[in-house]
Amino acid sequence: MFRPTVVQTPAIITITLLCWRLLLGTVRMLYRHPIAIVATAGLSALAVVYGWQWSAGLVSSLVLGLVGWALLHRSSFSWWVGWRLLAFWRLVWIYRPHWSFAMSGAGLSKLAKGLEYRPRLVKVTCGPVADQVTVKMLKGQSFDDWTTRADNLAHAFRALSCRTSIVRAGLLRLTFPRRDPLRTPIPALPIPDVVNLHAVPVGLCEDGRSWTLKVHGTHILGAGATGAGKGSLIWSVVRGLLPAVRAGLVELVGLDPKLMELSYGRELFHRYAAAPEECADLLDEVVKRMQERATMFGGHRRSHTPTIEDPFVLVIVDEIAFLTAYQNDRDLKRRINAALATLTTQGRAVGVGVMALLQDPRKEVMNIRNLFPDKIAMRLDESEQVDMVLGEGARERGALADFISPIPSVGAGVAYVRLETSPEPVRVRAAYVSDADIRDMVAWLTNPADGDTLPLPPIELAQEAE
Ligand SMILES: Nc1ncnc2c1ncn2[C@@H]1O[C@H](COP(=O)(O)OP(=O)(O)OP(=O)(O)O)[C@@H](O)[C@H]1O
């Protein structure tokens, strides 16, 4: 029978080890919380040398000073102090106490040889609308292990939702919104002074930042069930481009087979068509123009910069399926499909973009959806449609477009997008451009204010280097 020898560890070794750990812990605490340690030590020293009244007086004046700062200049106070204090508070009261239970409950900790290994909570930071929790994953875990548990984590920390993103190998960021800035409709955004074709403001992201859309050098496909608010997407883009339209640097082409949406702001479009034959003719015209431009640019330029002679042309198609899948005239359907495919495959480099909206994203209805690099999923009827619009795995990563509320004031205009900078879907809401706003836009474009002349001299057209 094998009996391992029991070796008694000498007390001196145990004590040395404990002292070493204590020393390491103290150094780590000093390194992690230098301000808190220095402040506590300073106040204690003051109390010992001069009496506690001095420390109490100093603390009270400090608190009064901070309250004054917060009242006088909220934004700088929040940036320097407020969010840090809130992050500390939420770390101590929410994340730390519930961490171990949340990890084991969500199945993210591992048991090995009787020991439980948990992912490490690295830090918590707070912003105006969301908390960001940085986590060190356990060895052997994958990003997918976390994305599939996002719902468990949201409930565990009593958040509205949880979104996951990678910081670097092994390090994750969990975003827990504290409030939803997209709950209430966003009024139409102001018409910008400077148009940036790579970042046209259209609404808000769920973290409170501005949601901007790139329109030049890409094509956009927006899908949403009836009443999802596709109109607000169209009009927000048009509104954001208006100064460039007035300056003659952007031309809007509207195809409105439903005859409902774009006709309301008909005057904002350089060219407009509603009947399918007119739409086919107009598309052929744009294709011809695009090909002429390509011939002209060929060998000289590889990208397009909008000028009055060669403006950026944005073709906006409301309910594209009326022109493609639901079109009875086969010849017309073939012509339209061919023109759209040509524009979406060749238009980017020569300054022609297509923004198409549709209700049903199935392949039978829209067989060229893969030719649109940027896609937006508004409220959809079925969960399978989310991946059809945003790409494989988007719903699993949190794009719950089928859960967007059908109540217009809550869910209209809300969408999920995959921004170029990150593959993670982001929840956004387009600003609501009302009928009165559209009338004002028409008036702004067609009746320049006193002193304004038409066309305006070219406005600054901020653009990223291509
Ligand atoms: N961004 C928004 N914020 C708040 N409410 C909105 C927004 N967009 C639209 N709505 C409301 O939702 C209603 C439906 O919007 P809209 O007509 O744009 O939907 P749609 O997706 O174009 O529907 P359909 O495909 O049937 O035309 C509008 O009448 C408006 O009241």
UniProtKB/TrEMBL annotation:
The chain crosses the membrane at residues 6-23, 35-57. InterPro entries: FtsK/SpoIIIE/SftA, FtsK_dom, P-loop_NTPase. ATP binds at residues 224-231. The keyword Nucleotide-binding applies. The keyword Membrane applies. GO terms for molecular function: ATP binding; DNA binding. Residues 199-387 form the FtsK domain. Keywords: ATP-binding, Membrane, Nucleotide-binding, Transmembrane, Transmembrane helix. This is S-DNA-T family DNA segregation ATPase FtsK/SpoIIIE. It comes from Nonomuraea muscovyensis. The lineage of its organism: Bacteria, Bacillati, Actinomycetota, Actinomycetes, Streptosporangiales.
